Amino acid sequence: QVQLVESGGGLVQPGESLRLSCVASGIAFSFYTMGWFRQAPGKQRELVAAIISGGSTNYADAVKGRFTISRDNAKNTVYLQMNSLNPEDTAVYYCAARATWSTLYDYWGQGTQVTVSS
User: Fold this and answer.
1) Among the listed residues 108, 93, 94, the one whose alpha carbon sits nearest the alpha carbon of residue 12
2) Which end of the chain is more exposed for a tag (fewer CB within 10 A), N or C?
3) Per residue in 26-57, pLDDT tens?
């Protein structure tokens, strides 16, 4: 049974930081590209950042320079360090896994709420 479990969301003020974590089980983690997505109320889900098994990363333009995705294959964990948060970052953040041989994200976490408000 595959599980992706996110943690680390919460309520912060503009300019503050949060670190999200996602622990995966039931998959050969090192063979998966891991992504962080977010969905704000009334908006489509969007890819925030992704990291392939070898460590290369890509980011949405809106978060470049502020967010950092990383992974620890020994711990089956992917992280999203979010700095300089602003209200536009408010959303439910989801962790997702895509096998290297797949074009779609196959597995999803339940999501964690991030709220940025003064």
Assistant:
1) 93
2) N
3) 999 999 999 999 999 999 999 999 999 888 99
Quick one: pLDDT at residue 23? 98
- Burial class, 27, CB count within 10 angstroms (exposed 0-12 / middle 13-18 / buried 19+): middle
SS3 76: coil
Q: Can you list the residues of the chain whose pLDDT is less than 70?
A: none
The answer to whether 6 and 109 have CB atoms below 8 angstroms apart is: yes
Tokens in use for 90? 């408010």
Q: Please give the distance of CA 43 from its chain centroid, rounded to a whole number.
A: 17
What pLDDT is recorded for position 103?
87
Give the number of residues written for the chain: 118
Q: Which two tokens stand for residue 31?
A: 């063979």
Q: Which token pair is 8?
A: 């680390």
Distance CA 27, CA 35 (A): 15
